[in-house]
Specification:
11% strand; RNaseH_sf; 44% helix; elongated; 5 strands; Nucleotidyltransferase, domain 5; alpha/beta; five-stranded mixed β-sheet
């Protein structure tokens, strides 16, 4: 009606639309309801959280973020407000990693047997390698995750797939965590079955463990991390150089995934927050 009142009088518009003129004016001057005011404030905060996550958070993580801020509302309300604001999270897709085995090398025994439950930090680490496409060629990322907190405790990047790549990731993990007889579980890739990696594990007091070849379930936790990396960063960016990709991955791991990103398996705590919470309770 407001859009057409320059052409037609309000009285005429109300008669055509079969509404009372007094009712229309009452509706125009009526203050927003408490619910509408609350929804407007929530929508503003939801937009800010969604932007903070670089557009990756969906309903569950935004709901958890609001709860952590002391805002306790239902998930359905969050979903309704996100729909109204045309906001949605990203959906994770399966991330394929190719493993090449050295038939001459003797793999370590499988000490995990697909049981990734750990009683605390630095009891079980999982490790794997993936690739990151750039205009300058592939960049390779090796990671070591703590199975208990899902925290990336070690990682390294290089333009090659030599053994030193996984050794550098292990060295970072050992240097940061100082573990006592931790199990390091990986696939049977040539880097992990190499003599050099085995010797470094022995020096550091790390117990190597290896699953079967080409079976994602034998290293499902790392596969899950790579799927998150792919859908929240790699599928949304194109890198012109190795340096640009390195910086983006650094920011993702150290600036987002470890300290801030809420994980469904951790009751929607971040890896760092989960560790901090349990240290405080100990």
């Amino acid at each position: 009606m407001k859009a057409n009142q320059a052409v037609h009088s309000i009285t005429t518009l109300c008669r055509v639309l079969e509404v009372s003129e007094s009712g229309y004016h009452a509706w125009r001057t009526r203050l927003p309801s408490k619910r509408a005011v609350a929804d407007a404030g929530l929508s503003k905060r939801i937009r800010a959280i969604h932007a903070m996550s670089d557009g990756t958070y969906g309903v569950p993580r935004i709901h958890a973020e609001l709860a952590a801020e002391g805002v306790h509302i239902g998930r359905k309300r969050v979903a309704r407000l996100m729909r109204a604001a045309h906001l949605e999270g990203v959906s994770r897709r399966r991330w394929c990693v190719t493993t090449t085995r050295d038939e001459r090398a003797r793999p370590a025994p499988d000490l995990v047997d697909r049981n990734f439950a750990a009683p605390g930090p630095d009891h079980l680490w999982v490790a794997d390698i993936t690739y990151i496409p750039t205009h300058a060629g592939f960049l390779y990322l090796a990671v070591v995750l703590d199975a208990w907190s899902r925290k990336v405790v070690g990682w390294a990047m290089a333009g090659h797939l030599k053994t030193e790549l996984v050794v550098q990731a292990l060295d970072m993990a050992v240097g940061q965590r100082q573990p006592q007889s931790v199990v390091h579980h990986s696939d049977q890739g040539t880097q992990y079955t190499s003599i050099g990696f085995g010797l470094r594990c022995k020096e550091a007091g790390v117990r190597p463990s290896m699953g079967s070849v080409g079976d994602a379930y034998d290293n499902a936790m790392c596969e899950s991390f790579f799927a998150t990396l792919e859908c929240e960063l790699l599928a949304r960016r194109r890198f012109t150089s190795h340096a640009e990709a390195r910086m983006a991955v650094f920011r993702f791991i150290e600036g987002w995934y470890n300290p801030l990103r809420r994980h469904s398996a951790l009751d929607y705590e971040s890896p760092a927050g989960y560790e901090k919470k349990h240290r405080a309770a100990a």
